[in-house]
Amino acid sequence: MTKAEFIDKIKGVEGGPELTKKQAGILLDAFFNILAGAIKTGGRFSYPGFGTFHVKTRKARPGRNPRTKAVIKIPASKTVTFKAAPSFKAGIK
User: How far apart are CA 58 and CA 78, in angstroms?
Assistant: First the structure.
């Protein structure tokens, strides 16, 4: 699904507020900004029935340049992971 398709879905929610395409886009952007901010500051965001996003720290490790075969050091880094809620997983199967 693309951002434009997602905006159309938000705009067309039955029983929801009447939104223009621009308002739905602003709402969607605000949601993802809040989500990103929560993950950056608290390290985690959880939504019951959907899942949890959290920051995971990767340790530094040795690697290899595939072209030169030289051993390099890959520095430690952080990444965001997602774990789906059991009810969400069950709905996909």
Answer: 6
Q: How confident is residue 84, by pLDDT bands cut at 50, 70 and 90?
A: very high
Q: Which residue has the higher pLDDT, 17 or 63?
A: 63
Q: Which two tokens stand for residue 67?
A: 């072209």
Residues 3 and 34 in one domain: yes
Separation between Cα atoms, residue 55 and residue 82, nearest integer Å? 9
Q: Which helix (H) or strand (E) holds 27?
A: helix 21-42
pTM for this model (two decimals): 0.73
State both tokens at 1.
């699904």
Q: Both 24 and 58 in a single domain?
A: no
> For residue 35, what are the domain limits?
1-42
CATH number of the domain enclosing 90: 4.10.520.10
Calculate what percentage of the chain has a pLDDT beyond 70.
Answer: 100
